[in-house]
Structure formats: C-alpha cells, structure tokens
Amino acid sequence: MVIPSSNGSQETKAATDLKYDRLSELKAFDDTKAGVKGLVDAGVTKIPRIFVHPPENLENIIKNAGNTKSSFPVVDLDGIDEDTVKRKDIVKEITVASGTWGFFQVVNHGIPLSILEGTLNGVRRFHEQDTDIKKEYYTRDFTKKMVYNSNFDLYSSPAANWRDSFNCVMAPDPPKPEELPPVCREILLEYSKRVMELGRYLFKLLSEALGLDPNHLIDIDCAQTLAFLCHYYPACPEPELTLGTTKHSDYSFLTILLQDNLGGLQVLHENQWVDVPPTPGALVVNIGDLLQLISNDKFQSVEHRVLASHSGPRISLASFFGRDTSGLSSREYEPIKELLSQENPSKYRGTTIKEYTTFFRNKGIDGTSALQHFRL
C-alpha cells in the first residue's frame, strides 16, 4: 500500500507508521477529559486513528450481521416462589443457559419498568451534562468511588473503543450520597438496592443449578461487592472501523446488564456472533470469569462485544458482582470442592478478586481471555 505524500512522491505505509506517535495522540485525547462525546460535539466526520481497530477485531460487524437464527434464552421468573415445579423448571433453564450460552435474559424480575427507565435516563443525564461539570469526576484512579473516563484501558489496549463510561462502587462500602453526581444520585442509589436484591436471588438459583445449597454462592461472598459501569456510546461517523466494546468476557462472578432499545450487544455462541435482542423490561444476565473458575467450567463466561453505530447514543448500565473494591476480604477462590471428582479434577489455581481484577486491568480488553492465565 502506498500513500501519496504532499510533494507528490510515494511513501510506504510502513514509513508513515514510523511517524505516527500513538502515545501522544492517546494523551492528547485523554487530556481533553471530554471523551468520545467531546469528539462528536466537535463535529468530527472521521474517527481519530487511535480508535481504528485491526481487521481481526472487525469480523462481521455490519449491522444485523449477527446470527438471528439462534433463539436467545429468556428466563421468566414469574411465580417462581409459588410453584415448586416451576422453580425446578426455571433452575433447569438457568443451568442450560449458563453452561452453553453463558447469557440469558430475565423478565418478571421484580424491578419496576419506571426504575429501569429512570436509571437509563440518569446515566444519559450525566454524560450529556456540561463537560466542565463532568471533568470534576474524570480520573484513572480506580480507588475512587466515582470514576469517569473514556476507555479504562486507553493506554494498554490495541485500539480505543467508541464509548465513555463512569464507574461507581456501590457495595460493600456504598458511597456517600454527595460522592455521586447530583444528576443521577437518587436513581443510582435506588437501582443499587433493587439490583442487589435481584443479584442475591440469582445467586441462589445459580447455586441450585450447580447442585449446591441455595446459599452456597452467597456464603462465599460472591454477592459481597457491587460495581456499576455506566456506558455512553455516541453515534459514530465511521462504525465500520471501530467498536463500542472489543470482544471480552467479564472479570466478575455475575453481571446484570440494563440496556436501552438500540441494540448492538452481541454474544459469541457456537463460533457465531448472535445479536442480543433489546427487550423492554428485561435484564441481561451473564456469567463472569470468576464464576466459570469456581464452577470448574460447568458455567461458561462467554465473549461478547458491542458494535459501534451511526445511531446513538446507546446507553447501558452493567452491574458487576465480584469486582475488586476497597475493604474487600482476601478470600481465595478456587473450584468448589463439591463439584470436583477423580473424573473432574480442578482446572484452575486459586486466586483472589484483587489479583484477578489487577491482572485484567493491566491486560486490558485485548480480545484474549484472562482465565487462561489461571488455568492449570
């Protein structure tokens, strides 16, 4: 490939690459503290080079290229506590979905639609407020209760993603109200209570799906920590060149995702990218790396990604159970002994949430699984 130079001669792409100072461009973008939304507000028609992904990341990203023939699993929790037969059927559905897809949607989960919509609106209000106000929260210090930035792995990933995010640690040591942004403070605190209740309930069902006592996963502190990651994916002028989120699996026990109706989330199922249909009132649940580890691969933490789009902004809030937070115990996690046998020996070494989180953050979202680092 040759690129015309300004004096009319030809210069190779390799020579051009030698002149490209990626670190300087990353720092210049980071220093604006305005994120991707700042680029869109400035009227960019071409995405900066730091956001251009290598071809292997962009496989089948054309809108609606995801396989829609596979029926994405939906678990209806209606009546689960009134009917023991229904409960057994639901646990079976969760067992199958967690072991094959690693994902499922839940409906009739008990969180009112008004709170779901209010939470998404709160996330939108934060990201769309004046940049000077947002800058007060902009940081790469993950020890803080409230962290706003663009791409947590900006300096370590092969290419930046077309999104901005803010992170709130909600448990076990919840933030003081004044530590949260006024534009979304009340709704985040309310949603935190609701999603914590739902998370604990799902951990009971997942314990049963593993053939364990319903409280097993709660008793080993899988539901101890809760962190919110609130994403804003602006409309992208060149969505064919980048991604909203690179393919990855989650470094947690469990994720509960609230998303708007724009779509774009895809799951890698049977080596094909499958669209996760946005369903009003539904929440998307997926198994995280740490739950795959302690279940000794009975449950699967599956890779997923978010496409960039001309449409937008797309809003979502991921609730993570099992992220490193201040004050967290140093409990070591390894495959649960009740699940092991001579025919099914342990496949992973033990690790702490802190060690796993640190490894993942240092690695960044580079398209490889962090679990492989801990496999025996």
Task: Explain what the structure shows.
Residues 224-323 form the Fe2OG dioxygenase domain. This protein is of the alpha+beta class. The chain has one domain (73-374): B-lactam Antibiotic, Isopenicillin N Synthase, Chain (Jelly Rolls), CATH 2.60.120.330. The protein has helices spanning 13-19, 22-32, 35-41, 84-100, 113-128, 131-134, 185-209, 216-219, 289-294, 353-363, and strands at residues 2-4, 10-12, 74-76, 103-107, 146-149, 164-171, 226-233, 243-248, 254-259, 265-269, 272-275, 283-287, 304-307, 314-321, 332-333, 351-352. Helix 4 crosses helix 7 and helix 5 crosses helix 7.
Uncertain residue ranges: 1-16
Number of domains: 1
Helix and strand run: EEHHHEHEHHEEHHEEEEEEHEEEEH
CATH superfamily: B-lactam Antibiotic, Isopenicillin N Synthase, Chain
Rg value: 21 Å
The coarse overall form would be: globular
- Give the end-to-end Cα distance, rounded to a whole number of Å: 44 Å
The profile of the biggest β sheet is: 8 strands, mixed
Tell me what the CATH architecture is: Sandwich
- Total DSSP helices: 10
Provide mean pLDDT, rounded: 91
Strand numbers in spatial order across the main sheet? 3-4-12-9-14-7-6-5
Roughly what percent helix? 25-40%
Organism: Scoparia dulcis (Sweet broom)
GO biological process, one term: coumarin biosynthetic process
InterPro entries: DIOX_N, IPNS-like_FE2OG_OXY, IPNS-like_sf, Oxoglu/Fe-dep_dioxygenase_dom
Keywords: Dioxygenase, Iron, Metal-binding, Oxidoreductase, Vitamin C
